C-alpha cells in the first residue's frame, strides 16, 4: 500500500533523493577524474557547479560527499551560506569538523594546536577579526593552514577530503569573496614533499576537493573579481535539465520489477508503475529534478493501490500544478529585466524564426548586436537558452510555461 511513510519521492531540498536520475557525467567527473587524481597526488582544480534553482546542484554534491564518506573519506555536510552573513564563520566551522574527522583535534603537535585555536576564533568571530589584523595573519590564512594540515593527514591515511560550500552566490562582500577563493585555492594548489624509500622524495598535491555550488551569478561574479585566478583554480559547470531518457531510466525500476516497500509484516512488497504513467511523468516534469520529485510524490499519494497508473499521475499533477507553476515563475522573476524580456519575446516567436535578428527586431532594436549581451548571458551563464545552431530553449519547463498551457494538461 502506498502512503506517506513509504513514498520514495522527495521534492524540496535537504534530502538526498532515493529515486535518482541522470547527472552521469558529473558523477563520473568525480569517480573518474577528481578522485583518482587527488589520490595519486596530482593537482586538480576545484569544481564550481552553478545552475538555476531546482536543477539539483546541492543534491549532486551531497551525493558525491556521501560517496566520499562511504569509502572512509572526510566530507563536510554541505555548508550553506546564509545571505548577508559572514561566510568565513561557516567555512571555518566546516573546516574544524574536517579537522575533527581527521583526528587533528587530539593532536599534541603544538603548531597544529595553535592553528586549530586560530580557526576556532574565526568560527566564532568571523571577519570581525580582520579589524585587529595587525596583530596576526589574516584569518583566511588560518583557514588555509588548517586545511593543509587536514590534507597532510589525508595523505597519511590515503584518503580524500571534500569541502562543499553551498549557496555561494550569497557572498556579497567582494573582499570576503576574493579572500575565500584565495584561501581555498591556496589549499588546493599547495604541494608537499613525501619521503619515499631510498632517500627519494615525492612532491605531491593534497587530496582536497573543493566544491562550490550556487546560482549562476556566482561564477560570473567570481570571474569578474578574481578572473584568471578563479578560472585557474576552479572549473565551472552549468547544470542543465535532465534528459527525458535519464528520467525514464530512473523510473524503470518502478515499471519492472516494481519499487520495493516494507509490507508492514517484516517483509517487502512492490509498488509498480504502468509504462504510460512513467511516460506522463517524463512529459510533465520536463527534465526539472524538482518537478520530477513533485510529480512522483503526487502520483504516489493520488491513490493507495499497488499500481501507479496514468490517472494517478494526472490526478496528482492537478494538486502539484500551482507549485510547478510557482517553480518556473520564480526562475523567470529572478532574471534581470532585459533577460526576462528577451525570454518572453523569444517564446512568442515561432521556433523556426528564432534568429538573433528576428528577436532583436521584435524587442524593438535595430540589429542583432543590441541583444548580444543578454543572449550570451542566458546561454553561457544561465544555461536557459542555446544560441547554436539556432536559438532554442534549454530550460524546457520555462519554454513550456511560456509557449503552452503547461502545467495545465
Ligand atoms: N539527479 C537527481 N535525481 C532525482 N532528483 C533530483 C536530482 N537532483 C536533484 N533532485 C531533486 O530536485 C530537487 C531540487 O534539488 P536541489 O539540489 O535542492 O536543487 P538546487 O540546489 O539546484 O536548487 C530536490 O527535491 C532533489 O531531491
Ligand atoms: Mg541548492
Topology, please?
Elements lengths: L23 H16 L6 E5 L6 H14 L3 E2 L3 E2 L6 H15 L8 H16 L13 H18 L4 E6 L7 H16 L1 E5 L5 E5 L2 E7 L2 H17 E5 L5 H12 L3 E4 L5 E6 L1 H11 L3 H13 L5 E2 L1 H25 L2 H12 L7 H7 L9 H10 L3 E2 L5 E2 L2 H8 L6
Parallel strand pairs: 1-7, 1-8, 2-4, 3-4, 4-7, 10-11
Antiparallel strand pairs: 5-6, 9-10, 12-13
Helix pairs in contact: 3-4, 3-5, 4-5, 5-6, 6-7, 8-9, 9-10, 9-11, 10-11
The chain binds adenosine-5'-diphosphate and magnesium ion (MG).
Magnesium ion (MG) binds next to helix 2.
Give your account of this protein's structure.
The chain is α/β, with parallel strands linked by helices. The chain folds into 3 domains: 24-238, 3-Layer(aba) Sandwich (Rossmann fold); 244-331, no CATH class; 335-403, Arc Repressor Mutant, subunit A. The chain has 15 helices and 13 strands. It has helices spanning 24-39, 57-70, 87-101, 110-125, 139-156, 174-189, 217-233, 244-255, 275-285, 289-301, 310-334, 337-348, 356-362, 372-381, 396-403; strands spanning 46-50, 74-75, 79-80, 161-166, 191-195, 201-205, 208-214, 234-238, 259-262, 268-273, 307-308, 385-386, 392-393. The strands form 4 sheets. Strands 1, 2, 3, 4, 7 and 8 form a 6-stranded parallel beta sheet that branches. The chain has a 3-stranded mixed beta sheet with strand order 9-10-11. A two-stranded antiparallel sheet has the order 5-6. Helix 3 (87-101) packs antiparallel against helix 4 and helix 4 crosses helix 5. The longest helix is centred in the last third of the chain and has 25 residues, at 310-334. The relative contact order is 0.13. The model has no long low-confidence stretch (mean pLDDT 89). Bound molecules: adenosine-5'-diphosphate (ADP) and magnesium ion. Magnesium ion (MG) is lined by residues 13, 57-58, 166.
Amino acid at each position: 500500500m502506498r502512503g506517506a511513510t513509504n513514498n520514495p519521492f522527495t521534492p524540496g531540498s535537504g534530502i538526498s533523493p532515493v529515486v535518482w536520475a541522470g547527472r552521469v557525467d558529473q558523477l563520473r567527473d568525480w569517480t573518474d577524474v577528481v578522485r583518482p587524481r587527488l589520490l595519486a597526488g596530482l593537482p586538480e582544480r576545484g569544481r564550481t557547479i552553478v545552475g538555476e534553482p531546482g536543477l539539483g546542484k546541492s543534491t549532486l554534491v551531497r551525493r558525491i560527499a556521501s560517496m566520499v564518506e562511504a569509502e572512509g573519506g572526510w566530507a563536510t555536510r554541505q555548508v550553506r551560506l546564509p545571505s548577508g552573513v559572514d561566510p568565513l564563520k561557516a567555512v571555518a566551522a566546516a573546516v574544524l569538523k574536517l579537522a575533527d574527522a581527521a583526528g587533528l583535534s587530539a593532536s599534541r603537535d603544538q603548531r597544529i594546536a595553535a592553528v586549530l585555536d586560530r580557526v576556532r576564533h574565526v568560527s566564532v568571530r568571523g571577519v570581525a577579526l580582520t579589524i585587529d589584523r595587525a596583530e596576526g595573519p589574516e584569518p583566511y590564512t588560518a583557514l588555509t593552514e588548517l586545511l593543509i594540515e587536514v590534507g597532510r593527514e589525508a595523505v597519511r591515511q590515503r584518503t580524500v577530503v571534500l569541502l562543499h560550500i553551498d549557496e555561494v552566490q550569497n557572498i556579497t562582500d567582494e573582499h570576503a569573496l576574493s579572500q575565500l577563493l584565495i584561501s581555498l585555492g591556496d589549499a588546493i594548489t599547495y604541494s608537499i614533499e613525501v619521503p619515499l624509500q631510498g632517500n627519494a622524495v615525492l612532491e605531491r598535491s593534497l587530496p582536497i576537493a573543493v566544491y562550490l555550488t550556487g546560482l549562476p551569478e556566482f561564477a560570473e561574479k567570481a570571474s569578474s573579481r578574481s578572473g584568471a585566478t578563479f578560472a585557474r583554480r576552479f572549473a565551472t559547470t552549468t547544470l542543465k535539465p535532465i534528459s527525458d531518457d535519464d528520467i525514464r531510466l530512473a523510473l524503470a525500476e518502478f515499471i519492472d520489477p516494481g519499487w520495493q516497500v516494507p509490507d508492514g509484516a517484516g517483509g517487502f512488497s512492490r509498488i509498480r508503475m504502468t509504462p504510460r504513467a512513467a511516460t506522463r511523468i517524463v512529459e510533465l516534469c520536463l527534465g526539472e529534478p524538482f518537478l520530477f520529485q513533485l510529480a512522483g510524490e503526487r502520483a504516489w499519494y493520488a491513490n493507495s493501490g499497488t499500481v501507479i497508473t496514468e490517472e494517478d499521475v494526472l490526478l496528482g499533477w492537478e494538486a502539484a500544478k500551482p507549485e510547478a507553476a510557482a517553480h518556473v515563475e520564480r526562475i523567470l522573476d529572478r532574471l534581470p529585466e532585459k533577460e526576462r524580456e528577451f525570454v518572453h519575446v523569444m517564446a512568442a516567436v515561432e521556433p523556426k524564426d528564432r534568429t538573433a535578428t528576428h528577436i532583436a527586431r521584435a524587442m524593438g532594436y535595430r540589429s542583432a548586436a543590441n541583444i548580444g549581451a543578454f543572449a550570451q548571458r542566458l546561454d553561457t551563464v544561465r544555461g536557459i537558452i542555446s544560441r547554436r545552431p539556432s536559438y532554442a530553449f534549454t530550460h524546457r519547463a520555462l519554454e513550456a510555461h511560456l509557449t503552452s498551457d503547461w502545467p495545465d494538461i
